[in-house]
Specification:
Helix content: 25-40%
CATH superfamily of the largest domain: Alpha-D-Glucose-1,6-Bisphosphate, subunit A, domain 3
Strand content: 15-25%
Distance between the termini: 50 Å
Number of strands: 13
Shape: globular
Number of helices: 9
Radius of gyration: 19 Å
Order of helices and strands: EEHHEHEHEEHEEEHHEHEHEE
Oligomer: single chain
Strand order of the largest sheet: 2-6-5-3-4-9-8
Number of domains: 2
CATH class of the largest domain: Alpha Beta
Largest sheet: 7 strands, mixed
Length: about 280
């Protein structure tokens, strides 16, 4: 069943090009996520029956927010959501899926390199159909709608199992749970010479990639250790965790100190790299 819920606006929901970023407890306020997502949909037009992409970097509150977005999208008339398995999709992977599927847009749940956990940061970012972040005219429209919102639409449907691949329905909307890596890996193969890189690893080239327990772990395991045969152990801290393992997912010598120290050691490999929380920035 679809309900219309009365609400009151929050005055602080002004998104930038990196979306709306706040501390987790702020997002956990009554109707806070609902208001912002409904305001986003109120600010755009022509999405009835269309598809959009949904995922995040796995940080704390990611799973709960995904369920909220699904219910509001279903109530507002979207036709399909493509969501990453486990709620995982890197920012570049969301952009790639938007463009590959020609979707209306997408929502990314991330606060980039900011720390996670119950008292860490959270964020919601809207990407347009071209794949990139919403331009200023769209973010300003979202903010204007957020200051005037009086109600949001939401489905009463139960939570979706986002860990199981496949398609289910909420109201008349399809929710397609996809492997977060598959389409991105296909794109990478059109951009890089995988045979040459595979041959490089076969020749003895070694690397260490520190995913910092953020979103890029599954991608690095599949691409480096899987497809490129870089060898087991190439990827460390490769499981996304809600609090990033208690660390700060910022790939610099301070927060990626273990990698830095390893690369300064006598047994260092040829290349060391790390990426930030949502996978759109890397340092090596």
């Amino acid at each position: 069943m679809i309900r219309t819920v009365e609400t009151k606006p929050y005055s602080d929901q002004k998104p930038g090009t990196s979306g709306l970023r706040k501390k987790v407890p702020e997002f956990q306020q009554p109707n806070y996520v609902e208001n912002f997502v409904q305001s986003t949909f109120n600010a755009v037009e022509g999405f009835a029956g269309k598809t959009f992409v949904l995922g995040g970097d796995g940080r704390y509150y990611n799973r709960e927010a995904i369920q909220t977005v699904i219910r509001i999208a279903a109530a507002n008339g979207f036709g399909r959501i493509v969501v990453g398995q486990g709620g995982i999709l890197s920012t570049p992977a969301v952009s790639a899926l938007i463009r590959a599927r020609h979707t209306f847009g997408g929502i990314i749940l991330s606060a980039s390199h900011n720390p996670g956990g119950p008292h860490g940061d959270f964020g919601v970012k809207y990407n347009i159909g071209a794949g990139g972040p919403a331009p200023e005219n769209v973010t300003e429209a979202i903010f204007a709608k957020s200051k005037a919102i009086s109600a949001y639409k939401i489905s009463d449907a139960p939570d979706i199992d986002i860990d199981r691949l496949g398609t289910v329905k909420v109201e008349s909307m399809d929710i397609e749970v996809v492997d977060p890596v598959t389409q991105y890996l296909s794109l990478m193969k059109t951009l890089f010479d995988f045979d040459a890189i595979r041959a490089l690893f076969a020749s003895g080239f070694r690397m260490r990639f520190d995913a910092l327990h953020a979103v890029t772990g599954p991608y690095a395991h599949a691409i480096f250790e899987g497809d490129l045969k870089s060898g087991a152990g190439t990827v460390v801290n490769g499981t996304p965790l809600p609090d990033f393992g208690g660390h700060h997912p910022d790939p610099n010598p301070v927060y990626a100190k273990d990698l830095y120290d390893f690369m300064m050691s006598p047994g260092a490999p040829d290349l060391g790299a790390a990426s930030d929380g949502d996978g759109d920035r890397m340092a090596g």
